[in-house]
Amino acid sequence: MLVSYKWLSEYLDLSKISAKELSDQMSLTGIEVEGVEVPEEGLKKIVVGEVKECVPHPDSDHLSICQVDIGEEELSQIVCGAPNVKAGIKVIVALPGSRITGNQKIKKGKMRGEVSNGMICSLQELGYSDNVIPKIYSEGIYYMPEEAVNGNDVFPYLDMDDHIIELSITPNRADALSMRGVAYEVGAIYRQTPKFNDEILVEDTSETAADYVSVEVEDKKDVPAYQIRVIKDVKVAESPLWLQNRLMNEGIRPINNVVDVTNYILLLFGQPLHAFDYDKLESKNILVRRGKHGEELVTLDGETRKVSEENIVITNGSIPVALAGVMGGEDSEITDGTTTVALESALFDSLSVRRTSKEFNLRSESSSRFEKGINHATIGEAGDVAAAMIATLAGGTVVSGKSVGSEIKLEDVKVAVTLSRINDYLGTELDQATVSEIFETLGFSYTVNEEKYVVTVPHRRWDITIEADLIEEVARIYGYDNLPSTLPKGETVAGSLTNGQLLVRKVKGLLEGCGASEAISYALTTEEKSRQFMMRESLTTTLQWPMSEERSVLRMNLISGLLDDVAYNVARKNTNVALYEIGRVFYQDKDPKKDLPYEENHLGLVLSGNTVVKDWQTKETPVDFYTIKGMLDVLFESVGIADKISYEGTKEIKELHPGRTASVKLNATVIGFIGQVHPTIAKEYEIPETYVAELNLQAIIEEENTPLVYQQVSKFPAISRDIALLVDESVTNQELAGTISKYAGKFLQSIRLFDVYQGENIAEGKKSMAYSLTFVNAEATLVDEEINKSLEKVEKALVEQFDVTIR
Question: What Pfam families does this protein's entry cite (predicted)?
Fold first, then answer.
């Protein structure tokens, strides 16, 4: 919301209060000020000039040579290329040595051989954006009013010496989306009551609005309030300069005196209005209803919109002429030929307006206010003031009365609070006189019995409904900076981490020790990505009002977000990527009674590129399945569950390579997966060969981990024996290692697979696997007989179970 300091000064005495001081005080009382801008800052030596003579340039088909009166004894010659320059107009002149927008300096020079003493300016060259400049001046220079004095600075005429205060309005303070709302707010800060100088309505009693139009509202829940006023015999023309300046400084383009009044009232009251050309409606009936399938409407932006039952539309009894609360129709817009205006003032259902504006991607000042809320008490008053202004500025006559389709019944909102409650909340010792004075300056009427206040909240503050709201108002006006600072009281206990938090920290340290970096991805993603790499069946959890389609669904995996991170790095030539993420995924059961998603803590890991970088003495080593599996093995070993973990090949996860993927089991329960991203998926993400793993970290935390037992290093020597096996290629290392561990006896310390071979001299369908077994007896030196007995048992079990050949 942009607030004009000059405009605000019309309602309050700000003569001793600077715009800077005002903005600071507003920020302290809860309405944040983004900044204060003075449009004339950075501009200098820009004056009013009058074109006395204008002739075509002899050497150009688009330039004109102008003799301009800038308040000096002699006329100043300026060459101008604007198509609308002519003799007899007053213009904006940048003198030699002046500065225009962009800190551009204007110098005396020549154009096509003719001297040019400065420049005749458009509004763009003074810093106005294209979307606020009146259309008739958008392609040329701006005409100053006749009363402007030649040679004087242009800034006061254009209100460029005003201070524009930009407010950041939170949704709960939509009352401050109007000049009147801001005036009440500032008045409360400085203990003033704003005085408004609204135009007085004069009606022509010879006719009534009912003679022109009747209004019917189909569903009063959609349209709680709707009324039409009629202004006849209007003459549509350009608005006076003061109104144009006010709108441009507020970021709104002036159109004509009728439309500009509706925008002015929007800013003044926060009440959106719409003006119809009565004759173009071609009907005396206005019906407000829901749209019907197949209906179309050409809106003011020239686009054809297909309306639906989700949209509230204004019709002339049969066909739509406007999207309620969003945008009017092109066929009924105000033009130069308009003579009778039907002025709409209404209240529409905020949810419907929001859906309509989102559906058609039409965000406007009007739709924004209907969505956030408007003052129900001034719906009619705003229409009355607008009608009076149109009659004054356009020379029309206001027909008496209104055609009303629906009216809202206003009920007083009363909220009770006690003085002790206020002081307990704020930590203050405010007395009754201070609190009463605050309520009075806010314009809140009240009764007080002993220390209990019953406050009647004015309708302009529809955000106040409960006791806490009143306490907040007292705190704001008293001053947040005046509230006392106190230290917490009471007993405290030493904080500590839970076992789960300790384990998560340990996991992070382990993975970072293995070379991975932590990543944090968005919990919101697309529906397609949310359903990739899923570990269980689940419904999708979709946001009702997402920021964008890319952030519309809660994730059900961590890998898709990490792959986006890999793609981001690879696109920037960082090809060696090792990332992990610990975060929540969101599952939703198909049981209709369980409508909330279930959150589960997961660990995601992704590797891409090389694990060893090439240099003068080493070859580069790309990451593979066993690189990422080794990291998981380190993790499981460190948290004490390695003996409960097993891996099993799987082809069920379609986003992973079917021959390089395994499910991870804790005891007999699948808690995750590990594997290579399928080449087609990698191509979609635009990443090279990449390996991923995802685990249910919650299951690991809940598992009772084997405690870590420290043992003294044996003083007796360890003995290593190698064993080579010829087995079917379908037999896994996990199966062989499990059997060896089971039958090797109590002195077996470790098993290490050091060779796998398939090829020449090995039968097809077979493979050779070589293991190194280490035996240790902590109490005595092992002898060959003991080792040989253990190996015999192992070999026998391997032959019986896997039909191996001992090599």
Answer: B3_4 (PF03483), B5 (PF03484), FDX-ACB (PF03147), tRNA_bind (PF01588), tRNA_synthFbeta (PF17759)
